[in-house]
DNA sequence: TTGAAAGCGCTACCAA
DNA sequence: TTGGTAGCGCTTTCAA
């Protein structure tokens, strides 16, 4: 392997000039720069990341910690990772996914303390996430994707669940729907402190009440079968239901299958609005789903920029950013079935 | 940050003794070892990974390259990653996931040439994978998960598709099934050279023919809707079909929904055997699926051991390992519907 | 069983 | 605009 010293000799310049030509840290004449570049090409020079890291005390690696082994990695996370990796690269960094389990807080901290990474993006943050406390106490630069119960000014980016559920409800109410049910993530996610389950549920309830409507929520296991059962459950509890908001992709498949099985037309007799979805799910069903697409890419970009601003010590990172989902029209949402014929749909009183 | 020199002073020994005490590379008296350990604890010493990497010319990082941004990361890959990470850790290494796209072969190579990683695990290998050629030519240690068209003695681990499909067919034939259809991955995966699509298809055909049966295969898009359509298609083409082998999880959901919709009992009238599945899918349906579980964990372990043997230069790594799937009984496979009533199930002649 | 010291290949400061 | 050089914190050989 050719070293920087080899390049310097070949180009007839000093080692430091090669270093500066490579990093652009100080100006180098065009002529010199060309000769250095030529020497590098001729020798097939490849910089040594360890040496650079040791000398500069920066690895130029950002660690994304995500419990991939526990959760898999869906479309939304994939969009996040993709955008985060691109943003990191544009800023001269590598974005690397470190498959640590949620209970490996110390290992995550040590990554940075040992200099393998300059900072951490923490995904799947729970309401009381042990990793966050550990990183904060160790003074390790990090940005949360999601929020703990008590955000306390810590840097974070997250889906704006309040806004997303409100827009979902507003959209449906605007179409004349009054009896709307929310099919949430599972009870298991709630038990383990998965924040979106709570934030979306609260947001949905608040939005419904702001319209004078009663929220009906069900927590549903992540399986098609559970989706079918949840639909049956909802229709038994609230027979007049004309619209569903779902935040559970796999269960939504079951819901659609069960609706078809029962001969309930979508969207003629039942509207289905899938929120916080990943790309591609809309087209996995017939009719294509109307969705509110999670802002994975935007979150990834913001999270990396936030972390870089901490790592570079430049500027004060925004404490927290909340991004809403984007409504993407499909064919699974339409006017309420009794809204068109009746004179005043929005006036129809709730049943006792 | 305390350095090794600080620890040495505090323990009253030389720097090199601290290094040896830490690495165990040469014997250190118990007394000395204890004093070094105490000094480390008192100072809160954390070793510097960059310095160690520079001096030893080894990063102790294994890079797993996987196009997470393009594919997401399902249960099988999650099991693989988990086992690979554990095996790496047991051997003093980190396993990190580097989100490179399939066309970023040079970037993957540079990872190792720059010393950020010691070797590469290449996932989602296609029949003609550009990354494999690049890594081979650069002399970078790597192990494929999957196989190119021409394996040529390159280190690899893979699912044994030939064996898995044969066992699947044997199992069904043993239950009296004669008309068996295979629902494969999509045409799109075939177009991009995704090897499992071909290997499974060929294996299924060979297994069927070895029983004197005619293979019927359909390539199905990865969506529930496509699964429903594929079932309709198969039943139209081959009305007497009594069993399905599927290698397409999402489509399988649609198949089950459509079967229920048509009132076709599972497994009384139709057996469904899902092969190369990830954990959890079996329980996502009712009745629970009978599956052949992909050996993700075993592949992860073997892949890391193979790569480590290359990196350490010790022993010759096994060129290739093929692991079959494990049959996991569920309730979606049963005797052929016309086998039970008839006198000799296995003897029932194929219809003309 | 231990110590001394020569690097590993860079960055970045101090001079010129 | 360029050169010289002192580290960065460790591993590992050579000696004792």
TrEMBL record, chains A, B:
> Biased composition, Low complexity: where in the chain?
334-352
Looking up InterPro entries in the UniProt record yields: HTH_LacI, LacI/GalR-like_sensor, Lambda_DNA-bd_dom_sf, Peripla_BP_I
Region of interest: Disordered: 330-352
Q: Which Pfam families match?
A: LacI, Peripla_BP_3
Listed GO molecular functions?
DNA binding
The record's annotation in PROSITE patterns points to: HTH_LACI_1, HTH_LACI_2
Give the protein name, as stated in the record. Answer: LacI family DNA-binding transcriptional regulator
Q: What organism does the UniProt record list as the source?
A: Isoptericola hypogeus
């Amino acid at each position: 392997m050719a070293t920087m010293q080899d390049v310097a000799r070949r180009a007839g310049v000093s080692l430091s000039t090669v270093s500066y030509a490579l990093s652009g840290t100080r100006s180098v004449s065009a002529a010199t720069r060309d000769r250095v570049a030529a020497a590098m090409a001729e020798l097939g020079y490849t910089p040594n990341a360890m040496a650079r890291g040791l000398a500069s005390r920066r690895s130029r690696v950002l660690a994304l910690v995500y419990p991939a082994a526990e959760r898999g990695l869906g479309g939304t996370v994939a969009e996040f990772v993709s955008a985060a990796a691109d943003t990191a690269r544009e800023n001269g960094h590598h974005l690397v996914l470190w498959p640590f389990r949620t209970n490996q807080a110390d290992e995550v901290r040590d990554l940075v303390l040992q200099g393998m990474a300059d900072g951490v993006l923490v995904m799947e943050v729970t309401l009381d996430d042990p990793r966050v406390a550990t990183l904060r106490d160790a003074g390790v630069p990090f940005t949360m994707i999601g929020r703990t119960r008590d955000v306390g000014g810590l840097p974070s980016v997250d889906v704006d669940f309040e806004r997303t559920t409100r827009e979902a409800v507003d959209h449906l109410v605007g179409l004349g729907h009054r009896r709307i049910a929310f099919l949430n993530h599972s009870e298991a996610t709630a038990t383990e402190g998965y924040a979106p389950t709570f934030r979306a549920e609260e947001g949905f309830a608040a939005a419904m009440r702001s319209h004078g409507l009663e929220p009906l929520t069900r927590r549903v296991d992540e399986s098609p079968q559970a989706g079918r059962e949840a639909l049956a459950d909802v229709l038994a509890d609230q027979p007049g239901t004309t619209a569903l908001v779902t935040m559970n992709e796999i269960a939504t498949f079951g819901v659609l299958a069960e609706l078809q099985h029962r001969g309930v037309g979508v969207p003629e007799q039942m509207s289905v609005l899938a929120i916080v979805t990943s790309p591609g799910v809309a087209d996995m069903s017939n009719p294509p789903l109307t969705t509110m697409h999670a802002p994975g890419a935007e979150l990834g970009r913001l999270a990396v920029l936030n972390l870089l601003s901490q790592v570079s010590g430049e500027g004060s990172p925004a404490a927290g950013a909340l991004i809403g989902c984007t409504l993407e029209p499909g064919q699974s949402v339409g006017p309420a079935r009794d809204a068109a014929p009746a004179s005043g749909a929005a006036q129809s009183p709730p049943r006792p």
